[in-house]
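Shipment paperwork, digital attachment
Item: protein structure file
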Amino acid sequence: MAATALPRPLAGVLAAVAVSLTGTRVSAIAVPWFVLVTTGSPVWTGVVAFAEMAPYVVVKLMAGPLLDRIGPRRVSLAGDVVSAGAAGAIALLHALSLLPLGVLAGLVAVIGAARGPGDLAKSIMVPEAADLGRVPLERATGLMGVVERLAQLVGPIAGGAMVAALGAPAGLAVSAVCFALGSVVVAWALPHGMGRRAAAPSAQSAQSAQEDGPDGYWRRFGQGWAFLRGQPLLLVLIGTVAVTNLLDAAFAQVLGPVWAEASGNGPAIWGLSRGFMGLTAIGGGLVAAALAHRLRRRPVFFAAFLVAGPPQYLILAVDGVPVWAVLAVFGVGGFCGGFLNPILGAVTYERVPRDLLGRVGALQTSLAFSGIPVAGVLAGAAVAAAGPAPVLVACGVVYGLTTTLAGLHPAARDMDRLRGQGPRASGAVPEPAGGT
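Attachment content:
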């Protein structure tokens, strides 16, 4: 057993992700339910949800230069401690009957603002943890994907059960414990220099890091943009993921529930299908963690994308499709989807200098998520105009065209070029164009 045990830094990062993300998923159940049963207003429920997600996205985007400067271990610790304090404060103030909606929204915004950079910090410690343990990048990112999917599966179930049994404040207390435990894991399992040891800054980045004014911050922010603009492969992958994320969000928020109602299968079958897909995705992630570092990335990545995406849309467009067929398509799609993030993460970590991971990672995530906020609105308008079946077919076709064209792009041929040769630090950080 000792020979197969994960090295301590990688195990620490994975454990911190597991407990923190579980806390996030529990709070995602507890907070909306708490607002809904307290106010009876879906409008306020939406306002509080926005109060969490808007700071999450914005602060995550803007925190990249700061994260690269002070180190991801510190940011992860701070994010978990602040999140734990805010979640615990909600539960305590409610118990004391001192929690008006304005205060609740403010504390939820604090959680979102802390979780954004905290989540990013954990993800950018993965490559160094893999280096320290001599673990292939695909294996490390595959295990990261499995942990994330497990937390996304277990967290809502645990949160729902906790809220049903003890009430929403108890769920928030559990979230606070999870966030606090994440900070303990990071403090205990990860070396003090984690995230900074490999990021020996170049002369340019060191000079800008010494500038405390806004010009220094924006210069570092611009360096992330300048680097990303010079990476055709990363831009192709970001564009592909941005389109497929938009389609997936429309599918989850509108198209799937509309199908469940129109077909008569109801929310139980829809939930079962999504849950089954999540389970098979965990299996695919485990296989990817074991084998992906031996496989050619380009054919595996884009073939997995084609199987994981379009068939889900097309099967729901078939009138009277049996439930077993839906489960089969979702199950196969989930398994293939388990291969995507390990390859995507490895390609990114090999190309982005370690002292730019925060800046570039923040930009990548924000661009890839840029269509998600409007996905439901667009899908709802399209269904109202054309009906669910044509929209499902159109989305499946767009999904397939997007992934096929990306796979045929010349830049995609470079997916294996730097396998095992990822940069440890930048030799020269590009200056942003135009003197940003």
